């Protein structure tokens, strides 16, 4: 009799242990699912479509970083100028086709921390700080609630009618556009000494931080030119990521201080645009920097 009671007690203890373990595992799994869900939910906040984890990609895959320059009322044919109408058409295409426009931070977290992003993600960037980026591009970005990054040449701010005013910069920064550096004077960085590179990187950063009251942590090298000193000076100055102009899709392979971007030129039709955002190996007839060199001669002082 005593033996039977002892055995029953043992069975009861085992049952209780199994139950406790079961509850613990179930609870752990539940909270694990919650963590995974909330991680995705952060990214999904500004995304309207239906989504599952299979729509997400990791940083072993590339995404397109679009590079725009001037956005005038009408293009003159200069490759630096994408007309307001063409820009609007391209942004509408992104909207209508369910693209997610990353913020600078989301892009950084994707590349560096491997935080997954939606497969249909792009980063929109603008160079040089033309005033028409405020007058013509910004209203379109606002309309579609799109994120974008603007790389500013700080010596040109508040000068004449071609370039942005400080107050326009502040308005865009306050409304979610990331304002970042394109140096003080658009010099070819690889031709400067380390000291001069550091100066133009730091001075432009200080100026933009003074205007927008936000940290400036991204730099686009003028013409995409850089050398070892550029990377060192960028790091020393507090930049966490730098962009070039190679014309390829962006991934971690070239490092965080040489992130690729894709040119968007005025002679593209919507088919060319579509090819650049859907095909990482889209055909490039002329290396973009060769076209750009000629255009800059007539455009930038
Ligand atoms: Zn530039």
Could you outline the blueprint of secondary structure elements for this entry?
Elements: H1 2-44, E1 56-57, E2 65-68, H2 84-96, E3 100-101, H3 104-113, E4 117-118, E5 121-128, H4 131-143, E6 149-152, H5 166-174, E7 178-181, H6 194-212, E8 218-220, H7 228-236, E9 241-243, E10 262-263, H8 270-278, H9 288-299
Helix pairs in contact: 2-4, 6-7
This protein binds zinc ion.
Zinc ion is lined by residues 127-128, 182, 186, 222.
Tell me what the structure shows:
This protein is an alpha/beta fold. The chain is built from nine helices and ten strands. It has two domains: 1-45; 55-299, Alpha-Beta Barrel (TIM Barrel). 46% of the residues lie in helices and 11% in strands. Strands 2, 3, 5, 6, 7 and 10 form a six-stranded parallel sheet that branches. The chain has a two-stranded antiparallel ribbon with strand order 1-4. 38% of the residues are buried. Residues 28-51 and 297-301 have low confidence and may be disordered. The structure holds zinc ion. Residues 127-128, 182, 186, 222 line the site of zinc ion (ZN).
């Amino acid at each position: 009799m005593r033996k039977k009671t002892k055995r029953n007690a043992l069975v009861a203890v085992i049952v209780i242990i199994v139950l406790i373990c079961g509850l613990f595992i179930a609870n752990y799994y539940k909270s694990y699912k919650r963590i995974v869900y909330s991680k995705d939910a952060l990214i999904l906040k500004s995304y309207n479509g239906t989504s599952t984890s299979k729509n997400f990609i990791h940083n072993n895959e590339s995404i397109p970083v679009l590079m725009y320059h001037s956005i005038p009322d009408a293009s003159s044919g200069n490759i630096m100028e994408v007309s307001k109408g063409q820009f609007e058409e391209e942004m509408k295409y992104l909207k209508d086709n369910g693209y997610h426009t990353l913020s600078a931070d989301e892009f950084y977290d994707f590349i560096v921390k491997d935080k997954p992003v939606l497969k249909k993600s792009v980063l929109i960037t603008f160079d040089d700080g033309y005033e028409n980026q405020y007058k013509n591009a910004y209203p379109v970005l606002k309309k579609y609630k799109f994120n974008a990054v603007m790389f500013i040449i700080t010596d040109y701010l508040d000068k004449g009618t071609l370039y942005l005013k400080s107050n326009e910069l502040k308005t865009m920064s306050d409304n979610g556009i990331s304002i970042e550096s394109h140096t003080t004077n658009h010099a070819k960085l690889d031709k400067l000494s380390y000291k001069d590179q550091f100066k133009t990187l730091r001075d432009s950063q200080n100026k933009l931080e003074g205007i927008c009251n936000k940290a400036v942590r991204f730099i686009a090298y003028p013409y995409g030119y850089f050398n070892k000193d550029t990377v060192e000076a960028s790091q020393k100055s507090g930049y966490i990521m730098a962009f070039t102009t190679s014309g390829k899709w962006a991934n971690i392979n070239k490092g965080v201080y040489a992130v690729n971007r894709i040119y968007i030129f005025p002679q593209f039709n919507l088919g060319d645009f579509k090819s650049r955002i859907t095909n990482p190996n889209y055909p490039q007839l002329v290396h973009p920097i060769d076209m750009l060199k000629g255009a800059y001669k007539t455009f930038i002082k």
